[in-house]
Amino acid sequence: MKNFKLLTFGVVMFSGLVQAQEIDYSKTIPFDASIKTGKLQNGLTYYIKKNAKPEKKVDLRLIVNAGSVLEDDNQLGLAHFMEHMCFNGTKRFPKNALVDYLQSIGVKFGQHLNAYTSFDETVYFLPIPADNPEKVEKGFQILEDWAFNAVLTPEEIDKERGVVLEEYRLGLGAQKRMMGRFLPKIMNNSKYAERLPIGKKEILEKFNYETLTKFYKDWYRPNLMSVIIVGDIDVAEMEKKVIEHFGSYQNPKNERVRQFFEVPNHKETFVAIESDKEASSTQVQLMYKDKEAVKPIVTVGDFKKYIVEELFTSMINARLDELANSATPPYTYAYSYHGKTWSRNKTAYQSFAMTGEDKQLNTLKVLVQENEKVKKFGFTQGELDRAKADFLAGLEKQFNDKDKTSSDRFVNELQSHFLTQEPVPGIVWTYDLAKKITPVISLNETNELIKKFISDENRVVILTGPEKEGLKKVTEAEVFKMLEVNEGDIKAYEDKAVAKALLRTEPKAGSIVKKEVNDKIGTTILTLSNGAKVTYKKTDFKNDEIVFEAVSLGGSNLFSDEVQKKVGFALGGLSEAGYSGLKLNDITKFMTGKIASVNPYIGNATEGLRGSSTPKDLEYMLQMAHAYFTDLNQDKEAFEAFKQKQTNFFKNISAQPNFFFQQEFQSFLNKDNKRFMGLIPTEETWVKMDYELAYRLYKERFSNAADFEFFFVGNIEEKQFEALVGKYIASLPSIGKKETTKDTGYRNVAGSHKKVVNKGKDPKSMVNINIYGDAQYSAKDALALQAVGEILTIKLNERLRETESGVYGAGAKGSMNKIPYGSYNFSISFPCGPENAEKLTASALDELNKLIVNGPEEKDLTKFKEGEIQDYRKEIKENKTWLGYFTKSYVNGSKADEILTFEAKVNALTVKELQEAAKKYLAKDKVIGMLMPEANN
Predict the structure, then answer these.
(1) What's the sign of the alpha-carbon dihedral 51, 53, 54, 56?
(2) DSSP string, 440-488
(3) How far is CA 158 from the centre of its chain?
């Protein structure tokens, strides 16, 4: 069913034109015949599917149907600890050999190679190259070792304690403190309330080695496991490998029963009102838990019920979105859905909202009333028709791309099939049946759901937010009052008329005056009668996708310092007004059943538009682009609503220690920059914002199409596309003038510095090390600095994580910019314990110095090369990669066809070149930022 859950949908549907068909609702949903599945004698389940996207890659996954909920009282946190140990040494790959080998073939730790532990399962991800049989064989050896051959020596367990405790430390904070108080009410004191996967600190510090071994032997066994293989492979050969690597293992004698724990029902309403001095947001959650246990979707009738729920969810959220887009939004955002809670076995109808710190009660009332409005009056036929159209449009998009689906999508679906029996019928069956069932779903069927969803029993209300002087805390009595429904307050929803078009007037078409072709990279370049340039590339990467960006040099750097301070944050809210006289809600309704979007932006050095669409809806995307150029609404009321939502969202974010640190550190770096306004707008900042001035500047920035270059990549039908370009882009106003970027002259603080920021009650620190400066841009040096950053990341994790057990993870990143001025930037960052911050900073700088003095080791350069090339070969088959490269080339003034030489440039990198880059750029002043807890804690 993941086929449906990850999508939004659209083919316009007129129920009156669709005749009901004979549908056998008792029929069992079939299993996708393209997937080979089976079960070994020992109970291990396997799934194998051939899928060549991406080419020469295979996604391997090991799923253990056991997680933290199965831990004994002396094992809290050991399900997750066991996940860590599987990367720390196995029979075939002792100590760090596993990660070392995988990095050597281009598998990046954390990005590609990963795992997670939840309440009910532990899952290991292993995407590897399939261009060599030996690599695939090694992949199976790794999966086998994870499953049965982890090496749990006292030495390695003790080393990993520090790493896991650092991950535990990362989770400390306001949210965890509040969750510890409200989770027992949501889960009604079930096992789930007592078994958070991260565990308990005192157990992680002191558990006996045998306790971990016992968990591994009890739960890592064949009849609780699944192996999934999806990729560019031979299915029969993979099945042999599954049997070879997993068939000989036996389940333990007198095996422990894999229990599935229930969440008890309750008659009363549980209320949790939690606050914290470090809470960064204000939230409201209203939950109605189902009394019955979760039932799997098995029959066509179950599938129909699923679609009914999806339509219901779409309609209720459309209403909640309309309120968020109103002149006086009652919350920043809100949504409702029916789905699983923290437990597999417990579902609930849940409404969630983020709101203002003093608006929790009003927001709760709105959520209650919107549910009651559906209960009393139901939805309208227009709402249902739109929901059906959106549902089917997204499903059609997935159907059209059925032969271009990424392997990880299939792996996720098969994982859900193994763990929760979600059906996997395949998109062809799904789309075909959905087209038959969806039209015959009645308004009464969707309207009846709310009566099943909401009840006075099994109800939970959770309010969380900041605790500070002057802010009155909500009481339980006030919450219960908001849950009471006054029938007189409930008014029927008004379904306003849908707009007839996105544009007020038909544009007067311009023309294409010049057409060039670059055969090297398959692009066509059009020069238009208004001076605008359009570059497009037709691809077959996706059947139902076109991505787009228009970009112009200039941006807000062209504004004076004084003007920038009046419009800096206002520019981001201009699009909230809509265009062509249409409000956002009008546009949303008009776009029912259509898949297209465009968003304008004004950055420091550029301005432009970004968008995407299906080929079928390309014209709508171009209409949106035309409207953003020529007919953006001026609506002070919409801007005031945007300000209110932004204020609600950001008001308390500085209470979060990490954000406060970043704000203070960036303010220090920019202390000489008169244009720097902080990372977020404050209430005082909003007072200074001039909406009318921002609007005028936007119109100015988008008044000259000749100063823009438009890029399109995707499944483009060239004749139709060029006609639409003539109509919607060549018709845009222009004055023929070309602008360039401006260097404002401001720079980050010069010299070596150390800035310590004290914030937070928990023993948590963060270290940022920055090296930066002016430099003439060099594409070769930029690649070398990127390589130095990724190699240093490997060395930092080897030393700070694996050797010193002082961090959960550390990273370094190097880059160069050409605009608005030539510069380089290199950063190192990691979270850690305050007691280790100085020591680990010294270790990090020592590793950097080794790269400067000695250069990287050849084996680490090889890891970088393999990782980059593997990513490149995958990404070069994606539309967004080409689009990003085109815009980057335009901004930097480089040749777009250099994308074809990337692999050669990576392979040509040498240890000497990286060392020279490190010496040239990194043996300089450093600015260190360090977050430490407040002294009185």
Answers:
(1) positive
(2) G--HHHHHHHHHHH--STTEEEEEEEE--TT-PPP-HHHHHHHHS--GG
(3) 34
**Contact (CB, 8 A) for 694 and 571:** yes
Residue pair 797/857 in contact by the 8 Å Cβ criterion: no
Picking from 869, 871, 774, 766, the residue whose alpha carbon sits closest to that of residue 811 is 766
Q: Which residues of 575-608 are buried (b: 16+ CB within 10 A; e: fewer)?
A: bbbbbbebbbbbbbbbbbbbbbbbebebebbbbb
Residue 126 CA: distances (Å) to CA of 133, 227, 292, 560, 702: 16, 11, 37, 51, 46
Asked if the model's pLDDT at residue 689 lies above 60, the reply is: yes
- Adjacent-strand bridge partners of 608: 551, 601
Torsion of CA 770, 774, 777, 782, to 10 degrees: -10
What's the per-residue H, E or C state across 643-695?
HHHHHHHHCCHHHCHHHHHHHHHHHHHCCCCCCCCCCCCCHHHHHHCCHHHHH
User: d(Cα 72, Cα 194) in Å, to the nearest integer?
Assistant: 11
Q: From the CB of residue 80, how many other CB atoms can be counted at a distance below 10 Å?
A: 24
List phi, psi (to 5°) of 517: -130, 135
CA–CA separation, 549 vs 734, rounded Å?
A: 18
Q: How many CB atoms lie within 10 A of CB 154?
A: 9
**H or E element that contains 39:** strand 36-39
| Region at 682 (left for phi over 0; alpha for psi -120 to 50; beta for the rest) | beta
Which among 807, 799, 801 has a CA at the least distance from the CA of 851? 799
Chain segment 524-557, per-residue pLDDT in tens:
999 999 999 999 999 999 999 999 999 999 999 9
Looking at residue 98, its amino acid is L
Distance between start and end Cα atoms, the chain: 49
The fraction of the chain above a pLDDT of 70, given in percent, is 98
The rounded distance, in Å, linking the Cα atoms of 280 and 656 is 6
CA dist 71 and 51 (Å) reads 37
pLDDT at residue 9 in the model: 27
Q: Tens digit of pLDDT for each residue in 441-491? A: 999 999 999 999 999 999 999 999 999 999 999 999 999 999 998 888 899
What domains are there in the chain, each with its CATH number?
A: 36-246 (3.30.830.10), 262-401+420-489 (3.30.830.10), 512-728 (3.30.830.10), 753-932 (3.30.830.10)
Q: Are 611 and 625 in contact (CB under 8 A)?
A: yes
Q: What is the C-alpha to C-alpha distance for residues 380 and 152, in angstroms, rounded to an integer?
A: 61
- The fraction of the chain above a pLDDT of 90, given in percent, is 95
Residue 77 burial (C-beta neighbours within 10 Å; 0-12, 13-18, 19+): buried
The per-residue pLDDT for 47 is 98
pLDDT classification of 188: cutoffs 50, 70, 90:
very high
Distances, alpha carbon 424 to alpha carbons 29, 224, 398, 496, in Å: 8, 20, 14, 39
Run of H or E including 161 = helix 154-170
Query: Coil, helix or strand for 906?
Result: helix
Q: What is the mean pLDDT of residues 298-312?
A: 97
The rounded radius of gyration (Å) of the Cα atoms in the chain is 29
The Cα–Cα gap between 230 and 881 comes to 23
CA–CA dist 430, 1 (Å, integer)? 9
Q: Angle at Cα 629 formed by Cα 625 and Cα 633, nearest 5°?
A: 100
The pLDDT value recorded for residue 244 is: 98
pLDDT of residue 15: 35
Task: State pTM to two decimals.
Answer: 0.95
What is the signed CA dihedral for 842, 848, 850, 851, rounded to 10 degrees?
A: 180
